[in-house]
Design brief:
By secondary structure, the protein is of the alpha+beta class. The protein has eleven helices and twelve strands. Strands 2-1-5-4-3 form a five-stranded antiparallel beta sheet. A five-stranded mixed beta sheet has the order 7-9-10-12-11. A two-stranded antiparallel ribbon has the order 6-8.
Length: 507
């Protein structure tokens, strides 16, 4: 018995150490499998989304070409002889005007033209290009690159359905062409309508989706690996958990600096990408909320803390992704200001009301004032409300006591807004970077006041997109006033009605 007791201290610690190492190895293998699965899934989803968007784009292009072909009078086409003698005839002029309108309806379209077979060859009938352009194809010019399949619908051997051709290379360059047939009374085509888009411009958006997806997959894999690595360290040695957490925070700060540097090199985002990014992030946030509900009461104290960290992180990630996408679209010139007749007083009062409870909770007065009772203007109400929400939220956040006010003055041509507070003011050293991306104008350790520093940059972009200006007046310790001025109407309002949105992106 004495020998047995003496042997316990000798082998039990080694056994526990081996068990701990084995568990750590298993966790490591599991973590590696999760990261690899996430990485592979991210690539598969990225390429699937890009391919889906590509197919959708081609379907839209075929629909546009078919609609354009349907608007062309077959009798005008049949009246053409296919020679330069057509130039100047009423039918030729009408058709050319239609082609020019089709070309101008979509800035991505480079060439629009009508062709038909004649004497066994495909010839040009009408071209939307300026006759002075070196790319102009006069009536009767032969298109030698025509494929045999393009003749079959004219001979009744194939249904005259719209189709996409490309990428193809001809004497004018490399294109993706959306084609549709102008059908006569007999049901046979009388002409082929071609609309060409440069291959680089047509496919750039899909390549960008892939690039963005790869970047987010890599970054997400890195973040996931870091989280799992922290979990392994925490499980293996609780005494080192704090040090591992600090190391991870330092690595996150370093990663943030790297992201700031890569921001200088990023390419233009397109509007459709925002939908693809917002969806997964919102889904993750929703999943965390559902997971929290299902696991309520089933986690220990450490698990509850980690769950709170994850929930807070995903909520901040949703806001950060939305702001990053908005500022990227603004910088790329992709923001479309849609002016509509708007009751400015009602919009301002409605926006201020959203923050009434927050202001009351801090003991602040939230006031609005107007230079006249009725103020109407042709503005983008959603964009203007977004600006006011950011400015009022900032004013309340950095004001501990006193008043936050919104003042609107209207002249015949312009609207002047001023959002003022009696808060901390902006330090002198930060005034030159107020409207820059990622600028933090107040140093704070309070998590409730943390942000990415994008709000004022987004405000500046939206105001300038309206054709307006924005500025700041502030004295540290005495408060801040953000002022901006926008026109009451845009160029499209000269006729007295709301602007025509037909040429805006996305309409």
């Amino acid at each position: 018995m004495s020998m047995l007791i003496e042997s316990v201290p000798e082998f039990a610690p080694e056994k526990r150490w081996m068990s701990s190492n084995k568990a750590t190895v298993i966790r490591g293998l599991l973590a590696f499998a999760l990261v690899a699965a996430f990485f592979v899934a991210g690539f598969l989803v990225t390429f699937a989304v890009a391919d889906f968007q590509r197919e959708q784009y081609f379907e839209v292009r075929k629909f546009q070409a078919a609609a354009a072909a349907a608007s062309i009078e077959a009798s005008d086409v049949e009246a053409l002889s296919g020679t330069e003698s057509d130039i100047g005839t009423p039918e030729f002029d009408r058709l050319r005007q239609q082609l020019v309108r089709i070309k101008n309806s979509d800035s991505r379209i480079r060439f629009v033209y009508l062709m038909r077979p004649q004497d066994g060859r495909m010839i040009f009938l009408v071209d939307a290009e300026n006759p002075d352009s070196p790319d102009y194809s006069p009536p009767g010019q032969v298109y030698f690159e025509a494929k045999p399949e393009e003749f079959k619908p004219f001979e009744g051997e194939k249904s005259p359905d719209p189709w996409i051709l490309g990428p193809i290379t001809d004497r004018w360059g490399t294109w993706i062409s959306a084609n549709a047939y102008v059908v006569g009374e007999g049901g046979l085509p009388v002409a082929l309508l071609g609309t060409d888009v440069g291959v680089n411009r047509a496919l750039s958006s899909f390549n960008q989706i892939k690039e963005i997806g790869i970047v987010f997959t890599v970054v997400g894999s890195i973040l996931l690996a870091l989280v799992l690595f922290q979990w392994i360290l925490w499980s293996h040695n609780k005494d080192r958990r704090l040090a591992a957490r600090l190391a991870m925070e330092e690595s996150m700060l370093e990663l943030n600096q790297q992201l700031l540097e890569t921001d200088r090199l990023k390419t233009e985002f397109i509007e459709s990408v925002s939908h693809e990014l917002r969806g997964p992030v919102t889904a993750v946030n929703g999943a965390m909320q559902v997971l929290d509900q299902h696991l309520a009461g089933g986690l220990d104290e450490d698990g509850e803390k980690l769950m709170d960290i994850a929930k807070t992180g995903t909520e901040r990630l949703v806001g950060l992704v939305n702001n990053l996408l908005d500022i990227t679209i603004i910088e790329a010139g992709g923001v479309a200001i849609r002016r509509e007749k708007t009751d400015i007083r009602r919009l301002v009062e409605r926006t201020a009301k959203l923050f009434g409870a927050v202001a009351n909770e801090k003991g602040l007065e939230l006031e609005t004032s107007f230079s006249r009772e009725d103020i109407e203007a042709y503005v983008d109400g959603e964009a203007l409300q977004r600006v006011l929400e950011n400015l009022i939220a900032n004013a309340i956040k950095y004001t501990d006591s006193g008043v936050v006010s919104v003042e609107v003055k209207a002249s015949e041509d312009e609207l002047d807004f001023a959002v003022s507070d009696t808060g901390r003011g902006i330090p002198e050293r930060f005034k030159g970077e107020v409207f820059e991306k990622f600028s933090r104008l107040h140093l704070t350790t309070d998590s409730r006041e943390r942000g990415a520093g994008l709000g004022l940059a987004i405000c500046k972009g939206l105001i300038e997109a309206h054709g307006g200006t924005i500025g700041v007046e502030s004295e540290e310790g005495k408060g801040t006033t953000i002022t901006f001025r926008i026109p009451r109407s845009g160029p499209a309002e000269t006729s007295g009605g709301p602007p025509d949105r037909s040429s805006l992106p996305g309409t």
